[in-house]
Structures are given as C-alpha cells and as structure tokens.
Amino acid sequence: MTVCYLEVDDEITGAISKLRAVKDGEAIIVVPPGSRIATSRINFKLLTREGNERRLNLVAVSDDPSVRALAISAGLPAYDSITAAEQALTTFREQDRRLAERLGRQPSDGPTAGPAREQGSDALDRTQVLPVPQTPDVNVRGDTERPRTAVSAQAPGAARRGKRADGRGAAAVQPATPSADRAVRGRRRVGRAPVVGATALFLILGSMGYAAYLLLPTATITLNPLATQLAPAPFIVVADPNVAVSDVAAGVVPAQLLQIPVSVNGIFPATGIEARETRAMGIVRFRSENTLNEVAVLEGTVVSTSDGVDFETITPAIVPRADFATSTPGAIDVPVRATRLGPRGNVAADAIAEVPQGLRGQLVSVRNPDPTDGGQRVEESVVTQADFDAAVTALDEQLDVEMADRMALPETTPRGLTLYSSTAQTGAPQALPTAIEIVGTIQTTFTVTYESVATVLAVDETLVGDLAALRVRGMLAADQQIVGDVVTTTHSATSVIGATIPYEVAATASVFSEPDIPALTAAVRGKSIPEARQILAPYGMVEISIWPEFVDRLPDQTARISLVVVTPSPRP
C-alpha cells in the first residue's frame, strides 16, 4: 500500500496526481490540519471517484473529527491514524477475496484487491463472450475493446475436433453469396447482444454492491456523559498563624498576624497649686549726729518699721562723722530687704525708722526715703501625679476606640486578606512624656501622647477554598473528571479559638466518568440502533446517526464507527 501525504496548500489536482502515481492498488491519503482539500465535500467526492476509476482501495487519515466526518459523508472511509487505516485496508483486502470467491473468480495472488477485480472481470469476459468477426466487444468496465481478428465459421464437428474438414486444420466454410454472409453475421449479432447486456448489467450491479460493501454503512455516535454531584460532608479548616503552608490532610491553612500602630493624644489641665513669694526691697539712709567717730553698720543689720516689719542691710556700710562746725550730720544710703516673704514688706517712704540700740547710742538714725516694693505671693498651677494618672486612664479608653476605627479602614487590611477585628489586641502602651518628665512642672495644661502596637489575625480565604477543592479532587475515582474543573466551595468562620480561626467548609463539584471509547465501540458494533442506545444509555445522552439513513444497524467493523464523547460544560 502507498501512503500519500498532502500538504496544507495542496489543491485537489495535486492530490489526484498523487493517486495516479499509485501502482499497488491500495492508497492511504493523509489530510493535514487546515488543508485546503478539507474545506469542501466535493474534493473528497473527486478523490473517491478517482479511486473508483483507478480501482484503488482508498482511505483517508485525519486527526480532525470534522474532516473525517466530511470524508465519510462523501463516501471516502476515514480514520484517525495510519495504523487504523492500514488495519482497515487489510480488512478490505480480505473482503475482496471473499467477494471474488462468491463471484466464482480466482482470488488475486497479489497484495491488493484492485487487480483481482480487473483480472476477474477480464476472465469472465473471455469465457462468456465469444469473438465475432469485425464486431467490437464490451468488457465489464463498459469500455470498447479493440476488434479481434475475424475467423470463418467452422463446421460444428470440425470445431469440436479441432481439425478442418480436409484433415489439415479448420477448413473455412464460406457462405454461398455475400448476402448469405451478411445474414449469418446478422443472426450471430442478434444472438450475442442479450448475453453481453446481461453480463454488463450483472457486473455493474456487482460493482455497485461491492462499493456499497466497502463504503457503507458508517456510524457517528455522540455521547454526552452523565454528570453527578460530588458533595462530601462539611468539614473544618483552621487558619493558624503558626503554619507556613496549607496542609490538606490536617485541614490547616496559614493565617497572618498583622501589626497596626495605634496612637492617641490629649490636652489635660494641671490641678496642683504652687505658691511662690518674694521679698520687698528698698533703700534706707543712715544719719549720724556723732561728731567724734564714724559709725560702722554691719551687713545684716536689722532696721524696722514702727509696726514691726523688719528689713536687713544687704551690704556693710560706714556712716561718716557729723561736721560740728557746720552742724551737718553724716549720712549714707544702704540697700535693704524685708526679712520675710510676701507683700508685707512693701512699706511707704519714711516708714522704716527703728535702728538697733547700739546704733541709736552712737547717735545714728534711719529713714527710707522711698517706698520699698517687690514683696508678693504668687500661686501657679502645677502638674501632679494624679493629673498624669487621670490623663493616662482617659487615653487608654480612647486607644481602644481608635484601634476599632483603624480596623474598619480599607487601607488597614492588605489586599486579598480578610481581617478579623475580634482577634485584635493592643500591646503595652507608652505615654509620652513620661510621669517623671512631666509631674511637678508648672503649667496650667499639659499634653500626653499614648502609643501602642495592636495585633490582629488576617486570612487569605482563597486558601480555604483551594484546600477544600484539593480535598474534593482527592476523592475522585480513577476514571472521573470534574466538569469544567470547577469546584464550588462555601465557608464561614466559627468562634475564634485562641490565636486560630476555624472555618466550616462545604464543597461540591459536578463529576463525570470518562468512558472507554474502544470498549464501547466494540460493544455496539453490529447492533441495531435501539440496542446500541440501550448499551450506551447508562453512560449518558446518546445521539446515533448512520449513513446512509436507510440502514438500521451499526457497521460490524469498528473502523466505520466514530464515537465522539462531548465533555459536559459547567452550569452557569
């Protein structure tokens, strides 16, 4: 047999040329994907006609089911592999041999069935149709043969003995006249015509039956497998921050522990009071009537008012002698300050007049020419420890509120994660400034900032669905597939247990069993359409089409049955 490989851009003329080059009576024509030949049914009809005219056992090979269906509809057997085609040609060759035996011909000794048909036809022609002088014969193919050499009619006895009447061979018996010769030839033609016509008709009908035997019938079966629901019992999947990867067997997926900085601040009043007093200060003038000696005034010498407000000298001083001649007393100004804090030391001018007895005995007196001032009591606010503690308590409550608000913000949760605010916890907060730094400071109000880092669990819940899908896939039988590879999962988080989040998960999938195409094809071959439907019904919805349509039974050869399994589509 000859394998003819077509190119994608080969035209039908090129394909026919390759068939005409086949010499061994069997040809496999391989049609590549996207071939121009496969764009029209008429191309396959032309190939079939060429094969019939050249008496070829011709089949096509293509891995595209639509191309095979197109070839079969045009009367050209088609297969999905060269191996299958070779097996089919072997089957056809055996069928040719059996047909030749039925027709009473000798089977061909060669490897193909095409030459056997031609030899058998010629042999039948030569044994059933006798030559007639100057008359063309019609062979089994309907062709006009070259006129055979005319011979004269023989005497019946001589013809049987193989000798002429004179003993030297077949003696010619000539008609008496030309008109008699024409009459004899006419009678022979009239007697031979029905035999030739009947033979030709018989051979034509035999050829048509043989072609139908080779090409008919073909069956196409479309099987839509049944899909069933696979729904295991709900199970628990735990999200754990201490797990790095998902574990299908343990039912655990990783969780993430997020850290979220939280900060609040406030301004608070200082309730403590601190009193601050200052001393009054001024100038006193010591005056001496002593004309004999200078009088020394020591630092810290106390002078006072008549009502007992005491002042002390800040620096030592020497009061000069009085001038007797001019009766001018000696005088010196000395700074003083009140011995006690507060505004009581603020006295009017000339209010300080009392000097110690020792100075008075030396004729020294004192006066303040100007009022003293600067003595006062000032009360200021100061931060107490109680103030600081109250501020921290208030900020701690605000910190919880701020943390809840932060959890609700979209930007707090990373993309793809689900945040579980019920797991949020704040770390040890820190107040700034600290108590040591602020308690006792003089200020009417003070500001405190309270900071903490909160932790909260977040889960990529697609991992929960993926784990559930993996568990469902692990439950499939060896011949089962998931429709569309789609597993539907639902999950809901239960109460938080410690630092983990349990999920109750349910998963479902539509599954179907991939049928054994060779086994099913073998099971329905040769069966009637109802029987085939009954055999295939347990596997799904079945559509069976047979060509030609009047045939009600599937071919007995599996090579003529095309079983196509349509993969179910997922429901929207």
Structure write-up:
This protein has four domains: 2-102, Transcription Regulator spoIIAA (2-Layer Sandwich), CATH 3.30.750; 129-215, no CATH class; 217-232 and 475-572, no CATH class; 272-380, no CATH class. It has 572 residues and is an alpha+beta fold. It has helices spanning 12-20, 41-53, 65-73, 82-102, 114-128, 156-161, 178-215, 357-361, 385-408, 435-438, 462-473, 517-524, 529-536, and strands at 2-5, 26-30, 57-61, 78-79, 218-225, 228-230, 235-240, 252-254, 256-269, 272-288, 295-297, 302-305, 310-313, 317-319, 330-341, 352-354, 364-367, 376-382, 418-426, 430-432, 445-459, 480-493, 501-513, 540-547, 561-565.
Regions with little confidence, pLDDT below 50 for 5+ residues:
107-191
Tally of strands: 25
Calculate Rg over CA atoms.
Answer: 64 Å
The proportion of strand residues reads: 25-35%
Shape: rod-shaped
Q: What is the distance, rounded to the nearest whole angstrom, between the alpha carbons of the first and last residues?
A: 51 Å
Number of helices: 13
Helix content: 25-40%
Query: What do the pLDDT scores average to?
Result: 81
Q: How many domain regions?
A: 4
